[in-house]
Design brief:
CATH superfamily of the largest domain: ApaG domain
CATH architecture of the largest domain: Sandwich
Keywords: Signal
Helix content: 10-25%
CATH class of the largest domain: Mainly Beta
Strand content: over 45%
Order of helices and strands: HEEEEEHEEEE
Oligomer: single chain
Number of strands: 9
Length: about 160
């Protein structure tokens, strides 16, 4: 067998292997399954109407929801809120603990945990208060690690209406 013939056979084999490899990739299960949890942070209602005035403070109340929508569970690891006036000026930053989350988010699912199962939600009756009567908003930032090992942030803005 000549050297040229051997090269042609080798070339044909490589083409066949490449074709089979492409067929195997094309036949794999590629149904766009999510690879990361998807967390939604929202309030009900939003915007949040002014609720009442008491002892020098204005209060707003709402239900605070944290929902997983991709079918992959996630565990809260960090949480803070940035507060802004209605003109966008930064007012304050407040850090909450994972234990705060465990203590407060027990109403929708009647369990005290920092884990949100896939396609589930947790909620809490929540209130905000300030000595000022202006409208403002709260940007909630929560960091999670999901069941796939992904570390990510989710955020949700709550608009609080002036009285």
């Amino acid at each position: 067998m000549s050297r040229k013939s051997l090269h042609v056979q080798l070339f044909v084999w490589l083409i066949c292997i490449a074709f089979l490899a492409m067929m195997m990739v094309a036949c794999t299960d590629d149904d766009d399954d999510p690879t990361q949890a998807a967390i939604t942070i929202r309030s009900d209602p939003n915007p949040v109407p002014y609720a009442y005035y008491e002892n020098g403070y204005y209060y707003w109340t709402c239900t605070f929801y944290v929902e997983e929508t991709a079918g992959i569970g996630a565990t809260l690891t960090e949480w803070y809120t940035e507060y802004y006036d209605s003109d966008g000026n930064h007012l304050d930053t407040q850090t909450f603990s994972v234990q705060n989350f465990r203590d407060w988010f027990v109403e929708c699912d009647a369990q005290s945990n920092a884990y949100i199962p896939g396609l589930a939600s947790v909620c809490s009756s929540f209130w905000y208060r300030t000595a000022s009567s202006h409208g403002w908003y709260a940007d909630n930032y929560m960091r999670f690690t999901d069941d796939e090992g992904n570390d990510f942030w989710a955020e949700g803005r709550f608009t609080l209406l002036a009285p």
